[in-house]
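User: Can you write out an input/output pair for a complex, sequences first and structure second?

Assistant: Here is one pair. Inputs:
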Amino acid sequence: MMPHTPEWLQVLASLGLVLVAAAVSRWQSLDLEKDLAVSSLRAFVQLTAIGYALEFVFAANQPGLILLIVAVMTGLAGWTSGGRAQGIPQAKSLALLSIGFGSWLTLGSLVLLGIFPFTAQMVIPVAGMVVGNAMNVNSLVMSRVRDELSSQRGSIEAALALGAPWYKAVAPHLKKALTAGMMPIIDSTKTVGLIQLPGAMTGIILAGGSPLKAVQLQMVVMYMLMGTAALTAFAAAWLASRAFFTPAEQLIEIQRPSAP
Amino acid sequence: MTYAIRLEHLNLALQGKSILHDLTFGIKTETVTCVMGPSGSGKSTLLRCCNRLAEPPVGSIFLNEHDITTLPVRTLRRRVGMVAQRPALFPGTVWANLAYPAQVHGQPFTHAQACDLLNQVDLDPEQYLQQDVQTLSGGEAQRVALVRTMANNPEVLLLDEPTAALDPTSTRLVEAALLNIQQQRSLTMLWISHDPSQVLRVGSYVFLLVQGRLRDQGTPQHVFRADSAHAVKQFAEGKWS
């Protein structure tokens, strides 16, 4: 079966549905027409740009270029996730480290085990999923660590006052943060295929691939995302915790963002 | 005269705000010294500096004439124990709490040691050792917190209003437990209290801290005399101008 993908004319035709959305917005006075127009245009420009960029990268298939692109993805993810983790000292560097740790270790294992070949066409889309997932996990875990350490200050200082090292003083309080980071992927792995067909699988089926092949790929994707989540959550929890202690193992004042 | 803890021109600012000003005084070895003062006068911060939960400047606090900032911090915290106003027990049994100090230092902890500790604070080991800490009363929890600290066998005990959250009966029980331990082990205690009758019962010396400065000092018997014009007495009686 030949894969069926839309041509530019058909893409243009699908814009008709955006016009329908805009009409509904106007009719219901939702005042969303401008947002609809801007987001549609942005999607068009961004996706066209990335499409041409990927055409070039896939054609070149240079290992150095692949690594550079994955590094840029990781850097952007660290910057974004660290920016969200308010009140954590050196949040951006720590986010970069934990996302890098979780995603590069996963990607490295997938390539070394021969699950994916080291080609641009395989590594870059997979890296997108892995790094994106690591970014979300890192944001969740870091903010949870901050909140736990702030609310459990009495218990942590009691442990420190007994001569416990900082890592033993925080260990019981990291469980909630680690769980928070792991739960979304565990939940979506549990219901995968029942509630919705996940993206990678849908992509293969739409492109005309066999559903069973699509399922195999999806399994690899889910398992690799669980690995990424665990590794990133682990690194994020410990790195963020350490950032709240001075060299003399004093728990610093924790600034929590005010409620919106 | 030897001092277990000696402060020398201790100044401390936290987040740009000056908390302690030029404190110079000593806590005599094997005595109970009380600290009184209004809320926000820096009493708790002073205690936290003594076990480095807050960081004092180099050369301002000495433990048996050793600058505490030169000691390994975990060793210091085992030698200078602390009991807070709230017991902050760890979830689990009394046994788990008592074993915690030994456990984090990788040392053995025996049933006999746990029984000995509980006996020192008048808690029956048979009844309490396997009890969940959530079922303890405030006074019982505070006594468990006290012996958990004593499991490290400290030389100095810092007490941050250890009875402030307790009813009068529990207060007396905790007080008795503390004095019993102090005498048995020849401990040095630095005890923050708001209660002049408690200071009279337990203290051999009292300091008054106001806005981070040493305002007054003396023996409780002297400063709380009926005809005393001491600032400590005026503060304790609520006649603070």
